[in-house]
Every structure is written in C-alpha cells, then in structure tokens.
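Progress against Task 2.4 (sequence-to-structure conversion) is shown through the following example record, which the project officer requested during the mid-term review.
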Amino acid sequence: MRLPSAPVGMPTTGDYAHDWALIDVETSGLIARRDRVLSIAVVTIGPDGEQTGEFSTLLNPGCDPGPVHIHGLTVERLSGAPTFAQVAGEIESLLRGRVLVAHNAQFDYDFLAYEFARARMWLPVSQRLCTLALNRQVDPPTDDMKLGTLAAHYGVPQAQAHDALDDTRVLAGILRASLREAARLDLPLPLVSCPPRAESQFTPKPPKTPCAYRNPGRLTAGGPLRQGMKIAITGETTHARAELVGRAVAAGLNMVTSVSRHTSALVTNEPIPDSAKARRAAAEGVPVIDERTFLRMLTEVQIGTAHDATATAKTPAPLKEPTTPQAVPVPRQPVRPVGTLDSPLAGHRVLVLGGAHVDAASARTRVVDLGGSAAVNLSASVTDVVLLADGVRDRRMSRITALELPVHDEHWLTAPTAAAPGGAAVRPRNPHVLPRGGVIDLPMPHGAPAPEWYITAGWAPRTDCEIDVVAFALDEDEQVTFDGDFIFYGAPENPAGTVRLLTGGPAEQTIALDLASMPPATRKVVVAAAIDGATTFGSVGAIQIGAAPGSGGSPMARATLDAATTERTVLLAEIYRRGPVWRLRAVGQGHDHGLDALARGYGVDIAD
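Structure tokens generated for the chain above:
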C-alpha cells in the first residue's frame, strides 16, 4: 500500500526537505534498557513528500510481551516471528542517510539503539525529528498532542491504533501537515543531532536503592552511628571500597560520594587528609573517623526513622531579587493562576519583540498581570505582538505581517483593548498561566494509572550558545542522595528511573517525572537550565515551561520566566511534596555561577 502523494502546498525545498524514515515500535514496556521491541514499522519518504519504501514485521523478543491489552501482541502471535538481529540489516538500510521521525522520537530512538546494540550493530541515525516536539512549537488548537488527536485535527485517517504499520502511515500524514504549518509560521525544525552511541552505553546497570531512613544529623563524639546518616569515604582503605560501602548500606547508612554541610561523618585513614572531601569536611566541621573505628561502629548501628512518603517537603523560601544589576520585576503576590474571563488579556497569547532584556521581561510580566500568556516563539496560538525598541527588525516580522497578526506598541500594555483574540486558532481550553513564584497542584488520578508528568522548557532558537536543562532529585536536606540523582545530558536518567531528561530539539528539553513511583527519600525535584560558555540568559531572553500529564498531554500550566542580565544558570521549577500531593512552583531565579557550582550546592561530587 502506498500513501497518497504529498498534498498541495507541502514544503519540498530548503530546511523542510529531507529524506525521512518514519518509525513506530510496539514494546514490552516503557524502559528501553530493560524492555524489548515487539513490532516495528518503517516508512521512507523523499524530500518531495512521496513515499519511497515501507517495511514492517513482528519480532520475537524472547521475553514476556508485557501489556497485551494495549498492543494485542501475545506470546503465540510472536512465537514464529524473527528476532531483531535477523532483520536489523534491512532496518539499517532503510534508516541510513535519512532523518529518523517518530512521535515522541526519543522513545523510539532509545529502543532502537538498545536493539542494535544487542545485535552488535550501530544505529545508523545522525539526526531525528520528533513530531510531538514539532507540534508543541506549532501549537495547534487541539485538546492534546496525542497521535490520534493530531490525526483528527489534520484530517489523517487512522484505522488501527497501536498497530506499528498503521501508526507509521498516520505519522506520515501528520508529518506532511506539520511541515506545512512550520513553513507557514517560518519555524525552524527541531532536529536533534544523534552522535554514534557505543554499545557499552546500553549495558543495563543495577539500580541504586535510595536510603530508607531520614538523616539524623552529625555523628557526635562517642555517640553511635544511626541509620540514615550520610557517610563519605576518602583516600586509600584497607578493605575494598565496595565492601565498605556494601556493609554500610546493609546497615542502613546513606553512603554519599561528596561532602556537604549535611554529611554526618567522613571516613579516612590519612593522618593529615588533603583531598577535596577532607578540605570540605574541615570547612563544614564534619566529624572524621578512621576505617577501623568505622568498622567497629558498623556492628552497633542504631535504628533510624524511616522516610514518610506523604511527608511535606520544605516550604520553598520566598523569592528574592537576584543580586545582579537591573533585576527583573517580580509579579504581584499572592501567587495564583491568572487569566480569568474578566481579565483584559484573557485568552490572549502575546509575543514581545525587541527592547533591552529588562524591558522585554517587564512587558511579559505585564502581559501575565493582565491575564494573558507571554509567548517566546511565534506559533499558531499567538494572538498579538508587542514591539519594543528595534522590534521591527526581528526576523519574524515579515511572517507576522503575512499572517496579519495585530501588532501593538508598548503603550498598548498600559490599557489594552478588550477585543476577543483574533487571528489565532480557538483553543478548547487554555493552560493555567503561572507568574514567577506561582504554585499549582499536579493532580493524580484515583483508581487509574498515574501519568508521568512532563516539564518542558523551551526558548527562542540560538546559534551562538547551547542551553542544557538539568534536574536534581533531592532529599529532606535539599541534597541529592547520590550523584546519580543529578540528571543531565551525560546521565539522562536517575538510577530509580523516576526522573528522565528528554531532548525534543535544540530549543526544547523535557524532564519526565514518574511521581507515583518516586521513592520516599525524594522530597523535591528541581529543574534548572544552564549555559555553557560566556553567554548569559540576558541575551537568551525568556524561557517558557509547561507541565503536561503524559508525553502527549495538553499543558495544564505554563510560565514564562526571565532571569536578569548576567545569569549563567537559572532555576526554572520545583516539583515538591505537600502531604500526599505533588506541587509545581514556577521559580525563575537566576545565578551568575555555572552549572558545576549549582550542582555542588545540591551535594553532587564535581571534580575540580
């Protein structure tokens, strides 16, 4: 079966024209390093939008097929199918030299990478495009961004959901329509570079288990060790380090790899220790004991206090103005979702162009105060444009003029017209708009599987710097339990698998949170952004965050955050426990120091 020819008006030149390989996989679970691909479909499309090839097959994974009620692939159906290794060569030939396309592309890409690694082959993909990320940029007026919803919106027929081949054919139609919309809005494609990935990176590692006990504080002179104490080791040891750590963990201690003010004791045999850990221990007044004493004390560890999964995290401190020049104004308190029907800009999404950063930030704050939503990019949902100094020179102005969007000067924000939004597509429901410091509960369904929450950060595309989104899973002391709870591009998943970093493009990254499975020791997750190099967030401009249930969910809440002028790191959001409820707080607090200093502050062991 061949798909129809490319629709009239589909962009077939320039940045929108590539050789595409559209992929869909059905899997035995959601964790690529553990679960297996059960079926795969590949449809190839040329730069002109015409289909050039198609391949699909069931696969025998050699394991339990998982949720049969979703994909319908039973052991009996899969028993005669080939293994992935047997068809890997054919799949490789379809992928080579093409841009991989999938809906939630990192999911499919990671599963393919692991399957190719198991087959002792490389995944031949250098770029990928996520149609989910692309449509988040386009921002069509849909209830959510799920494949079926977008298919209905774009008029693409769907015969059988969760069938890999049919889903790939549907994806082809969605890609064509999404490319037309991206070209209409002059949006750059969110292509993600995919460097070669070594097989060793796909070797499953045993998960670390967070300590089950709360930290009781410092070891006192002559006092016992207590379960939950944070213990670090430095220097040479008589016993193997792994043996010491294993015995301590079995006794209920929390073995950490760095020293902070929350460390209970440092173990070392050096008479005059001079390691970084020892220097930090001396500065913080952390007690120091030798290995022999530590082993003796391990035989008499006292009972600790277990973590309470419903305990309340520390209440976030009130926002303070950054101690840098030209601080950005803070919105009015008390914090509340804005955009009620009687607000002057209710239903408006406003893009501010031009002006010094502090002036643009002030204008965006004013938009939110008036009940509107501040945009960072041109999309289908933008209803108005405000021009500050030199805003007319912005490269997007020609497209804004062609789209006939209302354009205003800065005085419009003093007394905006109350006319209904024009030009943009009507949305079924708008997300809550949170000002800086705004808080909202993240609902968890009763009697149904809890969704992952996706905290997505986006910004105006840049060519002069790279922005990295990171996350820290913190305990009651506002510290990581171990370094693996620092999630960044080099370690995109914490050991428990409850916090993951997903890359949707050069101007969008997402932190996925499995809040229902979060260990009791995790009280808070902090999401931050950092710039590598001399560029600061003052030249980057605003960052938008959105919180959505599930990868294809519609944003329940949005915030547009401005740091001040000289920051190189900025705290974007905090997701923290409040009794049995998880809450999201929009932060927007910038710091002049780099990511290494930010990580050290949360207890991550960063080499000097």
